[in-house]
Design brief:
heterodimer, A: alpha/beta, 9-stranded mixed beta sheet, two-stranded antiparallel sheet, 11 helices, 11 strands, 27% strand, B: 280 residues
């Protein structure tokens, strides 16, 4: 199975809209939403949920107050400032700051701290009219988003193997940190969606460097390219200089928002210039993905 | 006062609101600006600070003192992140998994583990006119932004009005950035994606017990669902910014709204007055 991940560095450049279009265009594929922090792809694909799984993230420390002597050892040892002593001497743990390292439970002289698994979210296996879809919801203010991404990708891979599908389309999160690395590692191609702003250019360069650091090949597309033609030209020449295929230049069009409001992937909503450009882009990507060099 | 600007969804205009608010306030009060979106910091494009100090940021990772190690395996057992593996006559450390908790070095029975710094990024301090500026930049290939965000926030100057530009999303980097704020602004757009991610951001801020208001950007696109949601949930919409191609073009060139449309300065000052009223 080949894997295509859609990333951007900067948020809000159009990753999800484009991923949904690919879901309508690709044959024999599984779709995965790895932006588990703020998952949106389901709003366009209207999944019928078939399986719901609980996601146990890391551990969280809990103090058994009846055994605590208030010695304060744990307060001093915690590097995440998650443990504090209240005015009345009661020692409390802030579950949001706790990173689950467990050091407090080891050093507590009276064994008053217990480590417990925390439910950090849910993930789902669904069916859509475009094919199987794996998605998730991270709990509020939870960590371990990278781990949840890995979980989603593992399931997508299982489904692809079982149903003999040859492609996974992965909608990735913004940024360049932990969940992005988890979404990208081991994929065959990363499509970087950028926009012609100074921020968009800067973030695109960083996310492409990140992809190359993890030895993933990249292709690039400019969304709303006509908003600033000069910056778009700069992106084009940067891509050329760095041998990154520029597979699409998508114009700005209000129809895109309208299709989102209707909850329909753009390529099914209209056949306007944006829709046509995305279809053309898909054909180029399809060839890139099939290319001999990136065969595993 | 610490004011953070956040949003679940990316690209809704966090940085635009944060920098325009900061620049509008400068003059009437002294402002410190913290760009905590350390994975993709962008505020410097608009504030154009002169950077006068640049310091690398490290997290402590274990270093094994081979001659003391007995390969007992205690360190691997206590590491919650699988960042250490002990073999028959070798110890492997995986720095990218290490959270720097210090458990291994503290609990090693032979005191055979020292800590050394692993660089995760850089913090830069500067000034733009009267405004103090700090941002972090995560090194390419590093996974963990929270320690870098913590480092940036250690330099908060409480004598000033502190404005924090947070990263998108709702998980640990966001929580780290907004934690401790007196008030937050959630910037969103009136679309189904905007609404979905606003709900998540609202839940996060409620969990953290931070008062907040909403700013509706590109207010005339999409549908009415975000307004309806805010009304139902009793969330104040403090400002609306209309769709304006001029704003989008100015943004793309690294220009602020108040630079190209000075009338907005008054609107941001009014916004600030409303924000102050939200703090109990």
């Amino acid at each position: 199975m080949k894997q295509l991940v859609v990333i951007s560095g900067k948020g809000g450049t159009g990753k999800t809209i484009i991923s949904a279009c690919f879901a309508t265009l690709a044959q024999k594929k599984v779709i995965a939403d790895c932006d588990v922090d703020a998952a949106n792809l389901y709003l366009l694909l209207h999944p019928e949920i078939q399986e719901t799984h609980q996601f146990t993230g890391g551990m969280k420390a809990r103090i058994e107050q009846e055994n605590c002597t208030g010695c304060g050892e744990c307060v001093n040892t915690c590097r995440f400032s998650a443990i504090s002593e209240k005015g009345d001497g009661e020692v409390i743990i802030d579950p949001i700051s706790c990173e689950g390292c467990g050091v407090c439970s080891y050093i507590c002289p009276v064994e008053a701290i217990k480590m417990e698994h925390s439910i950090a979210g849910e993930w789902f296996v669904s069916q859509t009219k475009y094919g199987p879809f794996v998605h998730a919801r991270l709990g509020i203010a939870e960590e371990s988003s990278g781990k949840l991404v890995t979980e989603v990708r593992k399931k997508a891979k299982d489904i692809a193997e079982k149903e003999k599908l040859d492609l996974a389309i992965i909608d990735g999160p913004p940024g360049i940190g932990c969940p992005v690395i988890a979404s990208l590692s081991g994929t065959d191609l990363a499509l970087v969606v950028t926009e012609p702003s100074l921020s968009g250019i800067h973030d695109m360069e960083r996310v492409i460097q990140m992809a190359h650091y993890f030895k993933t090949q990249t292709a690039c597309c400019i969304n709303k390219y006509d908003l600033n033609l000069q910056n778009s030209a700069q992106i084009e020449s940067w891509c050329e200089k760095n041998s990154i295929p520029l597979v699409g230049k998508i114009p700005f069009d209000e129809e895109v928002t309208k299709s989102m409001v209707q909850g329909i992937p753009l390529t099914e909503y209209t056949n306007n210039s944006v829709s046509k450009e995305i279809k053309k882009m898909w054909q180029k990507l399809d060839k890139l993905i099939a290319r001999e060099e990136i065969k595993k | 006062m610490i004011l953070s600007v956040a949003s679940g969804k990316g690209g809704t205009g966090k940085t635009t609101v944060a920098v325009n608010l900061a620049l509008s306030l400068e003059g009437s009060c002294s402002v410190q600006f913290l760009d905590c979106d350390v994975e993709e910091p962008n505020a410097h494009f608009f504030l154009k600070p002169r950077i006068h100090q640049s310091q690398p940021v490290f997290i402590p990772i274990p270093e094994i003192v081979e001659e003391k190690c007995t390969y007992c395996g205690k360190c691997a057992e206590v590491c919650a992140y699988n960042a250490i593996a002990v073999l028959k006559d070798n110890v492997l450390v995986f720095p990218e998994l290490c959270h720097g908790c210090g458990g291994c070095s503290l609990l090693c029975p032979e005191q055979a583990i020292k800590e050394k710094g692993q660089r995760i990024g850089v913090m830069e301090l500067g000034a733009a006119n009267g405004l103090q500026f700090i941002h972090g930049k995560l090194d390419i290939g590093q996974a963990m932004s929270p320690p870098l965000i913590r480092e940036v926030k250690k330099h908060m100057n409480s004598t000033r009005t502190i404005i924090i530009d947070a990263p998108p999303g709702t998980s640990c980097p966001v929580v780290e950035s907004v934690k401790g704020s007196d008030v937050s602004l959630l910037v969103t757009e009136p679309t189904p994606f905007g609404l979905n991610d606003l709900r998540l951001a609202v839940e996060t801020l409620r969990e953290l017990k931070i008062p907040f208001g909403v700013i509706l950007n590109r207010a005339d696109i999409g549908d009415k669902q975000v307004q309806d949601y805010c009304l139902k949930e009793n969330i104040p919409v403090l400002m609306t910014i209309p769709t304006d191609r001029n704003i989008a073009v100015a943004y793309s060139e690294g220009k602020t709204i108040i630079e190209t449309q000075p009338a907005y300065k008054q609107k941001f000052l009014e916004l600030f007055k409303k924000v102050q009223k939200l703090i109990k």
